[in-house]
Write a structure and sequence with these properties.
Helix content is 29%, strand content 26%. The chain is of the alpha/beta class and 326 residues long.
């Protein structure tokens, strides 16, 4: 089969379409013929040699796909050959075929095309597990989403509004902020022009944000604590602004605040299956009802993976970038 490999770490041109041995489904897995794969920031880090796959996982990049089940591994009874699915992966998605543990499979939601379903697994599982399962965002609370126009951000805005929370976003341009507003964000902060702490306090009558979903990391740590409400929960899922920051414990303690950091890819299959099951129960009906939608910025052929990475790194996109196979 054809797959994207990384013979030598480097820039987007390090991604090479190669003929490799096709995987087979092991017990408890299915083999999926890939229709499309989502492009994630983690893939760009893997390409540069900064984010190796977990031990035993495919070296081929790609953390999510959509496609059609081609074969069933031993003991798989709940899925059939020909089912249209999307899936969360630990790797291997930039390929014509990928093997998937059954706990990480989801049906393609009603109303979503087979290709665009590839935009869902990573962002929905990340947002649901962090904002809802871990930070326990409640109706009437305020969520601050950094990078509102990112793949993650576009899903976080929609899901938070669906549970009746208020949403404040940061983004780096007026066009991106407008896209966030269309998705339901109520307070828009251009982080290149305004101080988000001031804007959050102003918008919440000095209370602060109950939950912050952060992709910046170190650079925002102290300002995020300043923007938190009493009993607020700061969930860090990205390190685009560095890994080492200074935390004022007194400030956190006086707010009875929590700082949590998580990573989805390295979680054991059992934990991923729990998240996927929760997503299927709580989010899939919202998508099927048309109340939450995948936001797809562009679709590139698999062979043009380098162009897709260039586009992601240029950061002009809103939502997800996909690689389409075939
Ligand atoms: N821990 C996990 O399990 C997990 C899972 C999935 C994703 N992630 C992380 O989540 C982040 C988003 O992923 P993605 O795939 O959705 O990425 P993406 O679509 O490439 O978006 C990245 C975004 O970061 C924004 N950004 C950069 N600096 C910013 C700042 N100082 N303030 C606000 N926004 C800023 C960019 O917007 P501008 O160009 O406007 O700055 C861009 O929209 C990444 O860091 C990724 O590694 C973590």
């Amino acid at each position: 089969m054809k797959a994207i490999t990384v013979p030598e770490f480097g820039g987007p041109d390090a991604l090479v379409l190669t003929e490799v041995e096709a995987p087979t489904a092991r017990p408890g897995e299915v083999l999926v013929r890939v229709a499309a794969a989502g492009v994630n920031r983690a893939d760009t880090l893997q390409r540069q040699g900064h984010y190796p796959p977990p031990p035993g996982e495919s070296e081929v990049p790609g953390l999510e796909v959509s496609g059609v089940i081609e074969a069933l591994g031993e003991g798989v009874e709940q899925w059939a050959v020909g089912d249209e699915v999307c899936a969360l992966l630990a790797g291997g998605g930039y390929a014509e075929l990928v093997r998937v543990p059954v706990g990480q499979l989801l049906p393609v939601p009603e109303g979503v095309s087979l290709v665009d379903a590839a935009a869902l697994p990573e962002v929905v599982c990340t947002v649901w597990s962090n904002v809802f399962l871990i930070a326990n965002l409640q109706p009437g609370e305020t969520l601050l989403v950094h990078g509102g126009s990112s793949g993650i951000g576009t899903m976080a805005i929609q899901l938070a509004r669906q549970v009746g929370a208020h949403v404040i976003v940061t983004a780096g341009s007026e066009a991106k902020l407008e896209a966030c507003r269309e998705l339901g964000a109520e307070v828009l902060v251009n982080y290149r022009e305004d101080d988000f702490v001031e804007r959050v306090l102003q918008a919440t009558d000095g209370v602060g944000a109950d939950v912050i979903l952060d992709i910046v990391g170190a650079k925002y740590l102290s300002r995020n604590v300043s923007a938190l409400a009493t009993s607020g929960r700061l969930v860090i899922i990205g390190m685009q602004g560095g890994t080492r920051g200074e935390l004022d414990i007194a400030a956190l303690l006086s707010k009875r605040g929590a700082v949590i950091a998580t990573s989805l890819r390295a979680r054991p299959a059992g934990e991923k299956a729990t998240i996927v099951a929760a997503v299927r129960e709580h989010v899939w009906p919202l998508i099927a009802a048309g109340r939450v939608q995948p936001v797809v910025h562009s679709r590139h052929p698999l062979a043009d993976a380098a162009a897709a990475h260039l586009e992601l790194e240029a950061s002009g996109h809103v939502g997800k970038i996909l690689l389409v196979t075939g």
